[in-house]
Known about the structure:
By secondary structure, the protein is α+β, with helices and mostly antiparallel strands. The chain has 1 helix and 14 strands. A hairpin with a 2-residue loop joins strand 1 and strand 2 (about 50-60).
Amino acid sequence: MVKKQKRRDRLHRFELLTAISLVLVLFGFFMINSFDFSSSSNIITGFVSSDIVRQNVSFEIQQSQIYELSSETPSKLTSLRLTGSIEGPGIVKIFLEDPQGQQLLVYSNIKEKKEGNLITGKAVGSLIIKPSETTVSPPTEEITINQKITSGPFYNECSGTCFMSLSLSPNNTAKLIFQVGENTKLKISQITYTTE
Length: 196
């Protein structure tokens, strides 16, 4: 009887040690991903290696516009994040539209309450962003009593584009849609994306 109890205790300790070890290993993966490896293009994302590209840019957008997004070579875009700031009282929404017309929200400055100058074409790493001939209307959304419009800086925003799969090539283009309200200026200072 005592031997069975000792055996159960050992088994229980082994299970507990295994569980703690697994938690520590997973915590290590998450910690590795949280550090800035801007000097390296490959980091661990879960159990898959992915290329992360950070490109500093200086875009100022003072009116709603659409820009074509393509790649110099065929590639699969797996995430897109934007960093920048908003000046002024208007609504700002940024969408990524795939070739089939499906829109993914990248960023919106409409938040839940808690108690100009045109961009010229610019190469961004292996992504190419250039103005489109197509126009877009400014946002006209009504703000509810539980929402507010924010301004100021935003960092690595990717509401619907944090995890995705979008094939790009010189002939297969997507769109970046910038909707900017009146008396408002949107500045984009960094584009971060991953590819497979």
